[in-house]
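During the no-cost extension, the postdoctoral fellow (Dr. R.K.) reprocessed legacy sequence entries with the updated structure-token encoder. One reprocessed record is reproduced below for audit purposes.
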Amino acid sequence: MDDGLMTADEVAARLRATPRFVRRLVSERRIEYVKVGRLVRFEPAAVTGYIENNRVVPTDRAAIRAYVGGAH
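Re-encoded structure tokens follow.
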């Protein structure tokens, strides 16, 4: 599904996670979703946004020292 809504199973496959994990994201409201009647669907942009919002970027030691040194 390139431009349509995705199912929880499709989101789980994209995240390489289980459908149970996706259901937990929904119940904790950590990912945007669309209700279609009783069904829960996801826009591809919402899945991409979830991935980007949870990206952890590496830092180097100099940045850590500057951060810690600036706090004192």
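The CA atoms of residues 5 and 36 lie 10 Å apart. The chain has one domain: 8-71. The remaining legacy entries will be reprocessed before the final report is submitted.
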